[in-house]
Each structure stands twice: as structure tokens, then as C-alpha cells.
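Example (one chain per record):
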Amino acid sequence: MTSNLVKGTNWAEEELTALLLMWAEAEVQADLNGITRNKPIFDKLADRLVRECKFPRRTGQSCRDKINRIKSLYTAESNIRYEYDLQPPYLLIKC
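Predicted structure:
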């Protein structure tokens, strides 16, 4: 099974957009709210990326890591912009 997993490769912009849109869904956020063991939720997101969007197979852990990295970058950018009294950053998602 591990032979068809994509690990250590760059994410395509369309793949990131799909992941973010799925992660932002109210149902997914409700599932993530208040739990610490969220591996099954990210495994489902990884499965959906393959099933619904036909992207290469990612692991749930790689999806979780990517979301955490994006949140970290957004927070860092927000802090810099706040410090210099600039407009807040916005995620630009092409539809």
C-alpha cells in the first residue's frame, strides 16, 4: 500500500486549495473541535483528496502537517502585519 503514497513531494496549488476547502468545511471543523487525537479525520481528508479530486495519494499525517504549516505561516504573517500596522493577510484561493 505504501508504494502508491506520495511523500516528500511538493504540493500543487490545486491540491492545497482542495485540502484547505475540505478542512474549512463546517463538518470537518466540528469533528476537529475539542479533540486531540485527530489522525482519523486527516486520514479521511487524504482519502477524499484521492477520491473526489483525483490527486496523488497523501497520508493523513502529511495533510495534518501541511495544514499546521499553513496556519503557522499565516500566524507569523499576521503578527508581522500587526506589528507594523498593516492590513491583515488574507488567503487568496483561486476558484
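Caption: The chain is about 60% helix and 0% strand.
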